[in-house]
Design a protein that fits this description.
CATH class of the largest domain: Alpha Beta
Shape: globular
Number of strands: 22
Helix content: 25-40%
Strand content: 15-25%
CATH topology of the largest domain: Aldehyde Dehydrogenase, Chain A, domain 1
Radius of gyration: 25 Å
Number of domains: 2
Number of helices: 15
CATH superfamily of the largest domain: Aldehyde Dehydrogenase, Chain A, domain 1
Structural class: alpha/beta
């Protein structure tokens, strides 16, 4: 059954001012219309930003512990509705239900974590260089935050961005991905049920061209937090520079799992399957490169082939399904184009085609795909495919491995399987990435540590953890001089009376 949804602006649910709409359909079954949504424009963004501006003074002045109490209630409500949200996500986005539950749980975890920050939001106190003077630094909110989220984690990532922004005292306008607007709207509905005041959180659906650009270029939006394609991130950064916005970009990845000759191959195999084909490879942390020591290469590739051959494609709501659909037909076409490139660059081990048989023909499915004998500089080994495709690269020594790991333009997540503790620490030192794993796949970040990458994976900011508070707040240094006389920093240091 299809539902008609509206934008949330200033606490009211309203249609786009133009009256235009678009549909969101299930990637597992294109005849299943999840909902009809406002196809919004700059006028709707203007209204949402104005609502966020009006709500900002009261929300920013509310004591942070009180804001935290609201987030604690939000977390509890999200937990109560976890199964509902998860099933909606699987229907609209496609990932299997167990993964959708994990997606929602991430948002719950971040809500609880950031709620606790309401009683911390630590600043700094330091000794002054002058007598009878107190020095400290405190956090201040910034203003209206624009949040632009992707479709692959349609609840977790809005939570990653929104909850630290709110606990710091900011208000927000969310622009969700047009492939998963129902997930975002239901998420925001539950936030309102938790007691978020009117106007503090607003949501406007529509295209990146109409809604995203208007949000990025709006003079009253002080911060932009974006997760998505690297090219889009560069465009956002360029547009936002005109109004000197603070911008956080979480972009692409081309993440390796390194399997060393002494690795627990069973564990490495389990992790490779999960990291490469979980969420149908549609994660920025997906293991799209498997760098395997030549001593175990053939054994590992054959074991991987057998495991992947047994994976079941289908609707993520079916308990028998291991791998769900990709997000849409455009994605199928892009992945198929890369598979064609791969056939000319390497050996196709398994897969390589869209899956159209039976019920799969109603949706957007692509076979889990493995290429072997892949050269490190092959396109399929260098470019982000964002689908269920992984490339196996054989290596002989550590120096070669480090060179290959670091050869791509991205630097998000890396993984090494080994029993050698010395090698494990070398990987932490040598691999260029924001996330590093040992004897674990490339996916599985936790809410209380920074998430983000190096190089073309982003612009240096981090999601969640304490690092998110630094992005969503301003530092204000405060000096209180109780000496009763003029003391000039640095200039008078040598004349301070020592008596």
């Amino acid at each position: 059954m299809s539902t008609t949804y509206q934008n949330l602006i200033g606490g009211s649910w309203v249609a786009a001012q133009s009256g235009k709409t678009f549909d969101s359909v299930s990637p597992a079954n294109h005849t299943d219309v999840v909902g009809t949504f406002p196809s919004s424009s700059a006028a709707d963004v203007d209204a949402a930003v104005e609502a966020a501006k009006r709500a900002y003074p009261a929300w920013s002045m509310m004591p942070a512990p009180k804001r935290g109490e609201i987030l604690f209630k939000v977390a509890r409500i999200l937990a109560e509705h976890k199964e509902e949200l998860s099933r909606l996500m699987t229907r609209e986005m496609g990932k299997v239900l167990t993964e959708a539950r994990g997606d929602v749980q991430e948002a719950i975890d971040v809500a609880y974590y950031m709620a606790g920050e309401g009683r911390r939001l630590f600043g700094q106190t330091v000794p002054s260089e002058m007598p009878d003077k107190f020095a400290m630094a405190i956090r201040k909110p910034i203003g209206v935050v624009g949040i632009i989220t992707p479709w692959n984690f349609p609840v977790a990532i809005p939570g990653w961005k929104l909850f630290p922004a709110l606990i710091c005292g900011n208000t927000a306008v969310i622009k969700p991905a047009s492939d998963t607007p129902a997930c975002a709207i239901r998420f925001v509905e539950l936030l309102m049920e938790g007691g978020i005041p009117d106007g503090v959180v607003n949501i406007v659906t529509g295209s990146g061209t109409e809604v995203g650009n208007a949000l990025v270029e709006h003079a009253d939006v002080k911060v932009i937090s974006f997760t998505g394609h690297t090219d889009t991130g560069v465009e956002i950064s360029t547009r936002a520079a005109k109004t000197l916005k603070r911008v956080s970009l979480e972009l692409g990845g081309k993440n390796p799992i390194v399997v060393w000759e002494d690795a627990d191959l069973g564990l490495a195999l389990d992790s490779a399957v999960w990291s490469a084909f979980g969420t149908s490879g549609q994660r920025c942390t997906a293991a799209s490169r498997l760098i395997v020591h030549r001593a175990v290469h053939d054994e590992f590739v054959e074991a991987l082939r057998k495991r992947v051959a047994g994976l079941v494609l289908g609707d993520g709501l079916d308990d028998k399904t291991d791998v769900g659909p990709v997000i849409n037909e455009t994605a199928v076409e892009r992945i198929a184009a890369y598979a064609a490139i791969g056939r000319g660059e390497a050996d196709l081990v398994i897969g390589g085609e869209p899956a159209r048989e039976g019920a799969l023909g109603k949706g957007s499915f692509f076979q889990p795909t493995i290429f072997a004998e892949v050269k490190p500089d092959a396109r399929i080994a260098m470019e982000e495919i964002f689908g269920p495709v992984t490339s196996v690269i054989a290596v002989d020594n550590w120096e070669e491995t480090v060179r290959i790991v670091n050869s791509v333009k991205y630097g998000l997540s890396t993984s090494l399987f080994t029993r050698d503790i010395n090698l494990a620490f070398r990987s932490i030192r040598d691999f260029e990435s924001g996330l590093g794993y040992v004897n674990h796949g490339t996916i599985g970040a936790e809410a209380h540590l920074p998430f983000g990458g190096t190089k073309a994976t982003g612009n240096g900011h981090r999601e969640v953890g304490q690092a998110a508070l630094d992005f969503f707040s301003e530092w204000k240094s405060v000096y209180i001089d109780y000496s009763g006389k003029l003391q000039r920093a640095q200039i008078d240091m040598e004349f301070i009376d020592q008596s």
